[in-house]
């Protein structure tokens, strides 16, 4: 944690906030803590890893008051078979690009009286981990999978069938991307309950050797049918309906990041702490951008 462990952070948090240097060190320690834990917990970052950018890497938007990142999209091209006396067709290249806006994710502002903190055995780092980090990474995942849902609804790249999950269902979902669009699925995302159904498949479906391993050790691989597997315990619905964005019965399929889109964090995660009289306040925030440059690179599977 960049030189700060939990005990050191608690000491800074509770013991030195009356000193300017102590506040500065607590801000630094808190920022490192939030940044590291957040990177471990957000599901979408395993699908489309974020890149950290600075203001100099971005552009000002003409539509709102925040920065955007303008990204070029690869040009399509063709080839032609011809005889020795023929010439190829001339094609003028027009630039294609898309704009990815940044948006702010912020935690609540937490407040506590210094005396209450001193009297409590509950570590401050647990509050940050259990509340701040969990809430911010949930907002990030909610936005990512909402984008995914809108794309698959527009492209009609989804498949619904009766559960539980099996090889035939996963294969049919893979083919939504791989058959029609000359793309390869890189990552499969499923809920823990669907994964539990998967590991109870009989030997006739998954083979005697794998079935025997799973009885003894469980399913110990981070792949499923040759594709990266991400298993989540999160369950979240769309803001406008009761449809599951992530949860039991909803599976997601994504092409590799270079064929999917772009993900950015502007600067670093901010952690702010202050003390006024006996009241201690702290909060975190950061700026995020997620863009899907290829809408054919996402598919959704639903089990009923």
Structural description of this entry:
The structure is a single chain. The chain has 304 residues and is of the alpha+beta class. It has a single domain (6-73, 98-303), classed as hypothetical protein PF0899 domain (hypothetical protein PF0899 fold), CATH 3.30.2320.10. Helices cover 37% and strands 30% of the residues. The chain has 10 helices and 16 strands. It has helices spanning 6-15, 20-41, 44-47, 114-119, 124-155, 167-178, 192-198, 203-206, 208-217, 257-260, and strands at residues 51-53, 59-60, 67-72, 97-101, 103-106, 110-113, 158-161, 185-191, 223-224, 227-232, 236-237, 244-246, 250-255, 261-276, 279-292, 298-303. It has a 6-stranded mixed beta sheet, with helices on both faces. Helix 1 (6-15) runs antiparallel to helix 2.
Spell out the key features of this protein:
single chain; alpha+beta; hypothetical protein PF0899 fold; 10 helices
- The CATH architecture classification is 2-Layer Sandwich
C-alpha termini separation:
43 Å
The overall pLDDT average reads 81
Low-confidence parts: none
**Total tally of structural domains:** 1
State the helical fraction. 25-40%
Tally of separate helices = 10
- Please count the beta strands (DSSP E, at least 2 residues each): 16
Q: Tell me the strand percentage band.
A: 25-35%
Q: Which sequence of SSEs, written as H and E, runs from N to C?
A: HHHEEEEEEHHEHEHHHEEEEEHEEE
Which structural category do the helix and sheet elements fall into?
Answer: alpha+beta
Radius of gyration, in Å, reads: 24 Å
Walk across the major sheet and give the strand order: 7-16-13-8-10-9
- Give the name of the CATH superfamily: hypothetical protein PF0899 domain
């Amino acid at each position: 944690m960049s030189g700060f462990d939990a005990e050191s952070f608690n000491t800074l948090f509770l013991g030195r906030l009356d000193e300017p240097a102590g506040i500065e060190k607590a801000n630094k320690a808190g920022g490192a803590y939030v940044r590291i834990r957040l990177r471990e917990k957000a599901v979408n970052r395993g699908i489309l890893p974020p890149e950290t950018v600075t203001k100099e890497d971005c552009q000002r938007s003409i539509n709102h008051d925040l920065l955007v990142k303008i990204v070029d999209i690869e040009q399509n091209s063709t080839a032609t078979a011809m005889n020795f006396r023929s010439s190829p067709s001339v094609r003028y290249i027009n630039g294609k690009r898309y704009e990815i806006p940044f948006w702010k994710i912020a935690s609540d502002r937490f407040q506590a009286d210094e005396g209450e903190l001193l009297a409590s055995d509950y570590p401050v780092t647990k509050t940050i981990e259990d509340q701040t980090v969990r809430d911010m990474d949930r907002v990030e995942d909610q936005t990512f999978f909402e984008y995914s849902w809108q794309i698959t609804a527009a492209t009609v790249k989804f498949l619904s069938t009766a559960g539980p999950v099996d090889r035939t269902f996963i294969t049919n979902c893979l083919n939504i991307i791989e058959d029609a669009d000359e793309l390869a699925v890189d990552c499969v995302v499923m809920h823990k309950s669907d994964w539990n159904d998967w590991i109870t498949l009989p030997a006739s479906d998954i083979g005697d050797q794998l079935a025997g391993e799973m009885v003894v050790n469980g399913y110990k691989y981070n792949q499923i049918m040759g594709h990266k597997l991400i298993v989540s315990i999160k369950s979240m619905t769309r803001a406008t309906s009761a449809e599951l964005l992530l949860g039991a019965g909803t599976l997601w399929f994504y092409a590799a990041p270079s064929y999917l889109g772009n993900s950015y964090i502007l600067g670093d995660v901010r952690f702010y702490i202050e003390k006024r009289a006996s009241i201690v306040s702290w909060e975190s925030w950061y700026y995020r951008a997620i863009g899907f440059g290829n809408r054919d690179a996402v598919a959704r599977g639903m089990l009923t």
